[in-house]
Design brief:
It is a single chain. Helices cover 80% and strands 0% of the residues. The radius of gyration is 20 Å and the shape is flat. The chain is mainly α. It folds into two domains: 34 residues; 163 residues. The chain contains seven helices and no strands. Helix 3 packs antiparallel against helix 7, helix 4 packs antiparallel against helix 6 and helix 6 runs antiparallel to helix 7.
Length: 201
């Protein structure tokens, strides 16, 4: 137990162990014949898309369900630990998780041959699955733009990462919170659309 605890005290080791188990799955799974063909490529890209999405939406929900509601209860002397250490680190993973989710999602749609149809919401070819998936994609794209163009720039001001007037910080924090809540709202139908497209249509 002590060896395992020592090994897992490193996040890098824990992540590498997780990926090692995936490799073991690939070796042992009878349905995988060892060929890195198109079918495997789309499967692998879908897995990366979901993995990235868990990071992104998990942190979005952490901010909205844990950090923001509990900040008023944290004593003022302890708040710098959040604003100077926890929040900047979480925002790094948050914004790059968003980037990875969008890129892998667009690549997956391209590899699957329905990128254009989903972006056009299925209007051209009239495939209902592509309409539902396209709605999910557009919610995700809007959320991604909110992260990079509004939430992150506002948080940089609110957290003092960039120089700004003291009066600008509360306004920037409120703007970041409002658009983070918009993303929380959109995340629910976005996830529904993504799952529905794979399982209903």
């Amino acid at each position: 137990m002590e060896i395992l605890a020592k090994l897992l005290s490193s996040l890098r080791n824990a992540v590498l162990m997780g990926f090692g188990i995936v490799v073991l799955f690939l070796i042992l799974y009878g349905g995988y014949d060892g060929e890195f063909d198109h079918a495997f490529g789309t499967f692998f890209m879908r897995w990366l898309h979901v993995l990235s999405g868990v990071m992104w939406i998990g942190l979005l929900w952490y901010f909205n369900f844990v950090q923001i509601p509990n900040m008023p209860d944290i004593p003022d002397a302890q708040k710098p630990a959040i604003s100077k250490v926890i929040a900047p680190a979480a925002l790094w993973w948050f914004r790059w998780g968003a980037m990875a989710t969008i890129l892998t999602g667009l690549l997956l749609a391209w590899m699957s041959g329905y990128l254009l149809d989903t972006l056009l919401l299925g209007f051209y070819w009239g495939v209902e699955k592509h309409l539902v998936l396209g709605l999910g994609m557009w919610f995700g794209i809007i959320m991604f733009l909110n992260v990079w163009l509004i939430i992150w720039p506002s948080q940089r001001i609110a957290l003092g990462i960039v120089n700004a007037e003291a009066s600008a910080k509360p306004l920037a924090a409120r703007r970041a919170m409002v658009f983070s809540r918009i993303n929380t709202v959109l995340s629910i139908p976005m996830l529904f659309a993504m799952v529905a497209a794979q399982n209903i249509y």
